[in-house]
Write a structure and sequence with these properties.
The chain is of the alpha+beta class. It has helices spanning 8-15, 21-24, 31-48, 58-70, 78-90, 150-160, 170-179, 181-189, 222-232, 274-289, 306-314, 334-338, 345-353, 396-407, 470-474, 480-492, and strands at 29-30, 75-76, 98-100, 111-112, 115-120, 123-129, 141-145, 148-149, 194-202, 208-218, 220-221, 244-249, 252-258, 293-297, 324-329, 354-356, 363-365, 384-389, 411-414, 423-433, 440-450, 464-465. It has 16 helices and 22 strands. The strands form five sheets. Strands 3, 15, 16, 17, 20 and 21 form a six-stranded antiparallel beta sheet that branches. Strands 5, 6, 7, 8, 9 and 10 form a six-stranded antiparallel beta sheet that branches. A six-stranded mixed beta sheet has the order 12-13-14-18-19-22, covered by helices on one side.
Length: 494
């Protein structure tokens, strides 16, 4: 949904999930080695992972695991084994758990498909061509890659790479897959120097000529692609600083607060106080300017520190709240949880704030009637509030939206976020390395339950759902989500 805000760092980060030539040349795995890897993974999931049986039954997981083991051939390449084991991870439908390639399997010389692709009405278009060959213009309809239809590839990769997508919420899987398409394609099919694409040619005015053509497109490194992106599409590049506040429009009494992440600032902020300070500065300015409309832009915000989402909510919610009602861990997850940061205080803090539940066998956080956060007294915002959201909005960002929906504040515009309304499996994570394939699996250790009224549907649906149009792709500098919010504000003030 964010056509005008191409985050170069996010692009680099997401495409790095692909496997390189080095990974493709890894030794073939024997049946015994693959069985060892599956057994090792199963042991860790059974002992640590809190989500087994939540979105899918444990019996279904066990049947899938046993079928996978029984169907193993004498040997497989690393990439083919990756394809076999991915469904076992993805069957949990947990956006915080993911399967990754071996460490250092990519480097700065790894080439990828040099297209940024977006979907409109079931058709797929080149939003940005970042290759040296500019003959495939912006707005070109892509029909297939290496003979496989785009719709098939989109669904295939969305099913097998679920990072940032909980439950059966479609937007998280489908949107993130297009954002990360070059990397995910390479991870699944292998890195290639060039790819055969079939497309419908458009003229200089982005009008389809109706001619279906084929050509080989050379793959490129992320560095080279980003250079062409900045050079060829300068009106579409807007790198926004976290917690930046800007005036919405000269004709509207309102502002936009960009919240790109809830993670703490990396430089000079060991106690995570910079986020708190900058947030206070932003809301103080909002108060001084007397903005009657505030848009909080959470598009592409993948989460971060829980305390920072609570800090933002304290300026928005009228009633005291706790971000989470409670959290639970499996007994086997306690040791990896308390030893994760090698802080000698962590075990003490854990046992002071958690207790063992003899009924369930789980370790459960101590609950209190006292809420963790109170509404900000000085700079609290009670005017017209809007949230801009897309499928890449996840984790701590969803905590903000869940509480806003729970207390009945704000208007949600865009797409459903990728995370679930009730909570998630997160807090702390352990990354394990499978002994033979060296695949890495990120395992969440805790179940976190939002302190909200329960609901059957995990999906947070927008009040005003938006879909990209073809003209949004081909118009330089257009941010169709923000344009819609401006119209909404103007109409509401009439």
């Amino acid at each position: 949904m964010r056509n005008t805000r191409v985050n170069l760092f996010l692009l680099l980060l997401l495409v790095s999930a692909a496997c390189s030539r080095k990974a493709q040349q890894a030794p073939t795995l024997t049946r015994q080695e693959m069985r060892q890897d599956i057994a090792f993974l199963n042991k860790k999931l059974s002992s640590w992972y809190p989500g087994l049986g939540y979105y899918n039954s444990e019996a279904a997981y066990e049947n899938l695991r046993d079928s996978l083991v029984a169907g193993l051939p004498d040997s497989l390449t690393n990439r083919d084994f990756f394809r076999r084991i991915a469904p076992l991870i993805n069957s949990q439908k947990d956006g915080h758990m993911n399967l990754g390639q071996p460490k250092r399997s990519t480097d700065k010389n790894t080439p990828y498909l040099p297209f940024v692709i977006r979907e409109v009405g079931g058709k797929y278009y080149v939003a940005y061509n970042t290759s040296a060959d500019s003959t495939i213009r912006r707005g070109t309809e892509l029909l297939s890659i290496e003979g496989e239809p785009m719709a098939y590839l989109h669904e295939l990769l969305a099913d097998n790479f679920r990072a940032g997508a909980d439950a059966d919420i479609p937007t998280g899987r489908m949107f993130r897959t297009l954002v990360a398409f070059p990397g995910r394609y390479a991870a699944w099919f292998g890195v290639k120097d060039s790819l055969l694409v079939s497309y419908v040619r458009v003229d200089t005015a982005a009008v389809s000529t109706g001619d279906t053509l084929q050509k080989y497109v050379h793959s490129q490194t992320s560095k080279v692609s980003n250079q062409y992106l900045k050079k060829r599409y300068p009106k579409d590049i807007r790198i926004t600083k976290n917690l930046a506040l800007s005036k919405l429009d000269s004709t509207i009494n309102g502002a936009v607060l960009d919240v790109t992440t809830f993670s703490k600032f990396k430089k000079g902020d060991p106690l995570n106080l910079k986020f708190k300070r900058k947030l206070r500065q932003a809301f103080r300015k909002i108060k001084e300017k007397n903005y009657q409309n505030l848009v909080i832009d959470l598009r592409g915000n993948g989460g971060g520190a829980i305390v920072n989402s609570g800090r933002l909510l304290s300026y928005l919610l009228p009633e005291p709240f706790s971000v989470f009602r409670e959290s639970t861990l499996k007994p086997g997850a306690v040791f990896p949880y308390v030893t994760m940061d090698l802080n000698p205080i962590s075990p003490v803090a854990f046992f002071l704030t958690h207790h063992h539940d003899r009924t369930t066998g789980l370790w459960r956080s101590n609950t209190s009637r006292k809420k963790d956060f109170k509404p900000a007294r000085k700079y609290g915002y009670r005017e017209n509030l809007y949230f801009l959201v897309n499928g890449a909005t996840f984790s701590a960002s969803v905590s903000v939206l869940a509480h806003a929906r729970n207390q009945g504040i704000g208007t949600l515009v865009g797409e459903s976020p990728g995370g679930a309304y009730w909570g998630d499996f997160a807090a702390r994570f352990r990354v394990i390395k499978l002994p033979n394939s060296k695949f890495r699996v990120r395992i969440p250790l805790k179940t976190l339950y939002h302190d909200i009224k329960p609901a059957d549907d995990p999906e947070i649906k927008p009040d005003y759902p938006l879909s990209r149009r073809y003209e949004d792709i081909v118009t330089p500098g257009r941010d169709f989500g923000m344009e819609f919010v401006k119209v909404l504000i103007r109409d509401s003030s009439k």
